[in-house]
Amino acid sequence: MTESAKPILTSVVTPDKVVARATNEPESLASLAMPSRRLARIHSIEDFRESARRALPRMVFDFIDGGAGNESTVRDNRAAFERVRLVPSGPVDVSARTPRIGLFGRQQALPIVIGPIGLASAFWPDGEIALARAAARHGIPFVLSNGTSIPTGKVMSATKGRKWFQLYVPPDERLLDTWLDQIDREGYDVLEVTVDTAVPGRRLRDVRNGFSMPLRWTPAKVLDVALHPRWMIDMLRSGAPKPVMWEEAAASRPAATVSERNLSAISPRLDWRMVERLRARWPHALVIKGLADPRQVSRALSAGVDGLVVSNHGGRQLDGAVAALDVLPEIVDAVGGQIPVLVDSGVRSGSDILKALALGASAVQIGRAAVYALATAGEAGVDRALSLLREELDQAMALCGVRTCSEATREHVRYAPWPSAERRA
Questions:
Q1: What single-letter DSSP state applies at residue 284?
Q2: pTM for this one?
Q3: Which of 75, 101, 249, 321 registers the highest number of CB atoms within 10 A of its CB?
Q4: 284 part of the active site
């Protein structure tokens, strides 16, 4: 922080309310006190999605919004949340309620983690830093993606909030050890290892849009970018984002889509022996992300991992995969309370968060929800999205007679016998 940085007024989430305090964050955060006109029209994560669709060139929006194959898993992730219904319960004295939880030895203000988002700076300049600062202000962790477009040390120094690091295990074990030493030295205190990317998912939107690295320009792409002048100007000023760590590991594959080229930097030989090696090598909490098979739980526990994230990569890997929320209860039962279990893939509201908690999750990770907000208004957008999720969760807890996150149980939910999720073509 420079000596010229001046205190500004920011919002701080406490167990019961939002209060204001002066901080010494960089002056650019002053814009949070003056939300754009776009944010004034935002009242849900779905509003953010529509705003992001308008703000981004099609190939960029489709990169984050799309999934593998015909996207049946993307749709079913949402349908799974719609199939679960909350049970309102009263009268219950809910005058004293809190969304605070403890996770991996630390307290946090909400049962939310901003999950890893590769190339976040493609959606807003310095996107990783914007996400980290918003997470810190709301008292929750931010997981920096191995596909970050900003150096890990710069993200760590941007704010004092808690930061985890998401790892794709590279083929080169010497590079792996270098990365582990680097992030440990910089202060990342949770390592989240993604295990569901043995091969790249075939994301048809990227294929059809020709969204490759390096990008091959066509008249249609030039026109699409020109029709989104704010994004174009931002990228011209900040420069095209690149995955700074993957550049060290990825093979040169100029014809590959973004996902295929980046995942060429990931070892397909990742197995439980490698997880055990990571456990012996990493001195802090070790979390496995991408577990969707209850049969693998015993191996995870034997390997000494500290937590699991039930996930199908947001439907971006295997089309036709089971929805993460559907398999969550089985994995929770297999874990038997020995370690925390988180879930991602499809979370769009505070009610969704309470459903996940009721089915046994310790917390949720959000990905697309944060990106839609980031693309809409940068850091201020993410701040607004987290505030919406907090308000929605608080309301759902109150109406269901739940005073703490740990009070939410399967008695608070029922399964609807009808499909009710919106199905997009």
A1: S
A2: 0.87
A3: 321
A4: no
